[in-house]
């Protein structure tokens, strides 16, 4: 199915007041079965939502794809009821976060031991990324979600507050606490790693 | 905005949620999946394993629906069971406290045993053939005990002849009741023929009741031509009061009085002998003022009395003395016809009794509910038979209750007749035309003249305005009755809730299971914010 350009989609619609209203109208049309509107939405948000889902799913792209597929199905099912009173981007992000939360909860119920341990096949490479990833995994679930969401592409604190449904001051204070915890976890890991390296050098040194 | 991030840690965190892979087309996969789901929606729904409770409730529902065409008599048994429960509720021994505290009459375990033990204590039938036979014997003995020497209740074959001396009651007791209103209607709703045709006579001079006023030939012939209801095995057992009302001796009187309210307050109470069981069946006092809106006089009074037949002439005389009679009419069904009707009804009830016994014997092992239903039927038949015998005795002795329908109209031009302390008015001389302001004359209403004369004086249903002193008592009584009704309603609700637990509990379980199932299916969408 060839993806139509946004101009083809919006050509028959009345003038829009802004990009958010445009997205909302696209969601409505997608919910009514307009696949071209769905294509436009995907062109705008698929990569962003997939990245967010991947971050929330500990880097597992297969799960992130499943989550995103479910998100689009939600759009197809209930998008026609979208009234546009809130931001379409907020709605899409919130659907994605909730779906990620459900998938992770389901995984925790099925294999709790495995779900706690990060999977071996990770997309985050490099020593520093692995350290940061492991440090993020040590955070509480809500702190982890907050950190990933707030540092998502182009996400402001106010948008994160809208998505999570909490005041912006709460977002800032929680984010500050999460970053402090994260830095503490990273420093302890660095200290442990440095101490281990020193011990190894001392062991290799000839007496 | 956090981009660009100066802190290396923030850069690393931003990279965690940044997709760097190949361009995707997940939305197309979503569309395909959604289309497949739409096509297989019903099949997917059927394939999903339903919770056990929901499946059980669904099976119960299907079974309850399927039992209707399989067993058409189930509805009848259910209705009979409902009637049995209603009868049980109607028993005086079931006081409010007892009804509220007693376990509900469900049909499982101890409750059914308790009900059966109660039935046994009150002489009700047990669900065995022997018990039914015993019940029939008891009923027959009771009827023979009540029955008259004429041998009425022993069955139609052994029933003695109707007393030949059973002359119409009007021959013995009724005064001359003239049909002066061609607009009057008999109890069957058909207009009565004119006076000349019906051979009704004008009231003779004086107030002495005329003797041997025969029943109107038209009505008598009509009743003679009416065959008694044919007994049928499937006849329903109806309350006998309604069936008997056309057989009552009935008098209809139209009056004119100076003040209807005064008439109601001062004259009407003396008409009824409450100690002997006479009653006020109904009344309506209209306050729609016709001429004087400030006088407070009522326009009309509709009153129905139930008085003894032997006192009917006395009542009518009193009415003639205290008012101006505009018209009178009476119906006196022949005593033989009344007795024949009673016999027919007795026969109907006996047929019903035999039918119940036959059904009970045909069922070798009746359920407890069916036994209760049979018990209720037998009880109703017994009550009907007892009432019929009492009515028959009263008819034979000529002291059955007669119905007196009184319509009193206000004569605003007349002088006050019921002034405080004033003596009772002298009897009105029929046919005399008194002067204006005197006692109202006896108005001879010709055919068709009644409606044209006083169309606006037709009594309209209205509410009697109570005396000011009675207002407090009325409010107190209403409050007490309200509280009593509330208590009864609460007790009935509790009893019904417990008694119908067998029905609503599975429904509640099914509803909860279905809700749980739906919520579980829709967990994802419910957790999402609703589209705004």
Write a short abstract of this structure.
The complex is a heterodimer of chains A (207) and B (532). Chain A is mostly helical and 207 residues long.
Structural account:
The complex is a heterodimer of chains A (207) and B (532). Chain A is an all-alpha fold and 207 residues long. Helix content of chain A is 73%, strand content 0%. In chain A, helix 7 (127-137) packs across helix 10. In chain A, 37% of the residues are buried. By secondary structure, chain B is of the alpha+beta class. Chain B has a domain at 173-214 and 247-329 and 401-457. Helix content of chain B is 49%, strand content 8%. Chain B contains 20 helices and five strands. Chain B has helices spanning 8-16, 26-39, 41-47, 52-70, 74-90, 96-101, 110-121, 129-146, 169-172, 195-198, 217-225, 240-244, 260-266, 312-322, 335-362, 368-397, 449-453, 470-499, 501-521, 523-527; strands at 250-257, 279-286, 300-308, 324-331, 401-410. Chain B has a five-stranded mixed beta sheet with strand order 2-3-5-1-4, covered by helices on one side.
């Amino acid at each position: 199915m060839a993806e139509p350009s946004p101009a083809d989609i919006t050509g028959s619609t009345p003038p829009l007041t802004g990009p958010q209203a445009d997205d909302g109208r696209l969601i409505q049309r997608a919910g009514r079965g307009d696949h071209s509107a769905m294509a436009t939405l995907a062109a705008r948000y698929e990569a962003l939502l997939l990245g967010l889902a991947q971050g929330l799913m500990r880097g597992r792209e297969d799960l992130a794809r499943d989550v995103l597929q479910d998100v689009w199905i939600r759009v197809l099912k209930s998008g026609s009821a979208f009234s546009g009173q809130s931001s379409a981007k907020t709605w899409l992000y919130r659907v994605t976060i909730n779906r990620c939360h459900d998938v992770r909860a389901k995984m925790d119920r099925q294999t709790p031991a495995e779900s706690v341990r990060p999977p071996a096949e990770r997309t985050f490479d490099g020593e520093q990324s692995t350290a940061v990833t492991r440090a993020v995994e040590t955070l509480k679930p809500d702190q982890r979600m907050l950190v990933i969401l707030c540092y998502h592409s182009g996400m402001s604190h106010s948008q994160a507050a809208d998505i999570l449904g909490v005041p912006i001051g709460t977002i800032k204070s929680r984010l500050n606490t999460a970053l402090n915890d994260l830095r503490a976890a990273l420093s302890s890991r660095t200290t442990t790693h440095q101490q281990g390296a020193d011990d190894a050098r001392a062991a290799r040194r000839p007496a | 905005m956090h981009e660009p991030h100066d802190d290396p840690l923030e850069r690393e965190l931003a990279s965690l949620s940044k997709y760097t892979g190949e361009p995707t087309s997940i939305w197309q996969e979503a569309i395909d999946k959604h289309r497949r789901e739409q096509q297989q929606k019903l099949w997917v729904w059927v394939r999903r394993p339903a919770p056990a409770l929901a499946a059980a409730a669904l099976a119960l529902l299907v079974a309850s629906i399927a039992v209707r065409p399989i067993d058409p008599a189930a509805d009848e048994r259910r209705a009979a069971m409902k009637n049995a429960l209603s009868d049980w509720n109607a028993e005086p021994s079931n006081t409010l406290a007892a009804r509220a505290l007693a376990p509900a009459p469900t049909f499982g375990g101890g409750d059914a045993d308790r009900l059966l033990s109660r039935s046994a204590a009150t002489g009700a039938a047990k669900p065995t053939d022997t018990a039914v036979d015993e019940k029939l014997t008891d009923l027959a003995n009771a009827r023979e005990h009540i029955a008259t020497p004429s041998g009425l209740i022993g069955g139609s074959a052994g029933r003695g002849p109707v007393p030949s001396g059973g002359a119409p009651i009007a021959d013995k007791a009724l005064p001359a009741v003239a049909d002066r209103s061609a607009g009057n209607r008999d109890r069957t709703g058909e207009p009565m023929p004119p006076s000349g045709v019906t051979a009704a006579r004008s009231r003779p001079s004086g107030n002495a009741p005329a003797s041997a006023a025969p029943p109107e030939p038209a009505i008598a012939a009509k009743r003679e031509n009416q065959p008694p209801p044919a007994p049928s095995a499937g006849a329903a057992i109806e309350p006998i009061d309604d069936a008997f009302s056309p057989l009552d001796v009935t008098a209809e009187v139209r009056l004119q009085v100076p003040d209807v309210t005064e008439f109601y307050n001062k004259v009407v109470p003396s008409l009824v002998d409450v100690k002997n069981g006479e009653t006020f069946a109904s009344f309506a006092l209209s306050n729609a003022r016709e001429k004087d809106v400030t006088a407070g006089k009522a326009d009309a009074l509709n009153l129905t009395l139930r008085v003894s037949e032997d006192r009917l002439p006395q009542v009518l005389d009193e009415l003639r003395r205290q008012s101006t009679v505009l018209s009178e009419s009476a119906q006196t069904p022949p005593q033989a016809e009344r007795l024949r009707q009673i016999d027919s009804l007795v026969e109907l009830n006996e047929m019903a009794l035999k039918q119940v016994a036959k059904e009970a014997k045909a069922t070798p092992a009746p359920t407890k509910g069916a036994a209760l239903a049979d018990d209720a039927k037998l009880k109703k038949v017994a009550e009907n038979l007892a009432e019929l015998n009492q009515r028959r005795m009263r008819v034979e002795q000529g002291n059955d209750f007669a119905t007196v329908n009184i319509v009193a109209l206000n004569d605003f031009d007349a002088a006050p007749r019921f002034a405080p302390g004033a003596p009772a008015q002298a009897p009105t001389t029929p046919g005399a035309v008194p002067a204006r302001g005197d006692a109202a004359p006896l108005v001879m209403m010709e055919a068709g003249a009644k409606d044209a004369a006083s169309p606006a004086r037709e009594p309209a249903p209205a509410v009697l305005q109570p005396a000011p002193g009675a207002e407090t008592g009325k409010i107190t009584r209403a409050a007490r009755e309200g509280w009593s009704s509330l208590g009864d309603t609460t007790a009935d609700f509790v009893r019904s809730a417990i008694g119908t637990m067998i029905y609503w509990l599975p429904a509640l379980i099914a509803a909860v299971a279905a809700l749980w199932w739906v919520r579980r299916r829709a967990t994802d969408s419910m957790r999402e914010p609703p589209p705004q």
